[in-house]
Design a protein that fits this description.
The complex is a heterodimer. Chain A is an all-alpha fold. Chain A has one domain. In chain A, 64% of the residues lie in helices and 0% in strands. Classes of the chains: A mainly alpha, B mainly alpha. Chain A: Keywords: Membrane, Transmembrane, Transmembrane helix.
Chain lengths: 146, 121
Amino acid sequence: MADRTRTRPRGAALGTGLGRVLLLVYGTFALSASARALVQISTHFAEAPLAYLLSALAGVVYLAATVGLAVGGARGRLIALVSCTIELVGVLVVGTLSIADRVAFPDDTVWSRFGSGYGYVPLVLPFVGLWWIWRHRPEPAGSDRS
Amino acid sequence: MNGPLSAATIVAALVLAAWFFLRSALDRAPSRFDLLAMAALSALAAVLVVVAAIGLLDGTRPSDPATFAGYLVTTIAFAPAALWLAKLEPTRWGSLILGVGAVVLPVLVLRLQQIAEVTHG
């Protein structure tokens, strides 16, 4: 059946299969986080500078992850790995801070309250991303299966 | 913002999203029908955006026109972007891409409505 899924070898590019779904989701978050930060910083930066700068950082991190997934290969994998790790730390730290210290976060960032404003996708996304990157770790030299 | 048109877009997007998620769960790649359905949804979203843009001409402007314009551009581009990525991915993940694209569209339309409601002038 031509309609059925073709399976790719494990070492296939980072940006295919589920990687392409991640590409769309990360691209969406790169756009929404950067656009939000741009509007916040350009219109009322003084209200919550910390939250808005974190929004901007989130935008840059999502953008880097998107680029890393799209580029693929050893370099893309490294970019995606670093940005997904920052993203995981960011969503956990900002999520905790936004609950503990409401004064510093009068306005939401994508990472506030673990991303509840975005259906908790920001919390789940780095785990999926890191799992996907881990699955695409380079195979040890000499092993020639599949 | 045109209410009935927004509602139609949201309902169509949610129905299609459910269908695409089902297709992905059943391990099916996007069929020709699926791609055409997504193209139709893109067209519907494009009509909505054009109607919303024309609505700006009658003098009732959202109080945050830059954000509104940003959302208009995103709304018109999102479904075609998902369609393009899904065409590159002829596996179950292609169906998931269409599903994600279709499920984000209602969010964009709802945000557009929210921003349009806060008006001045």
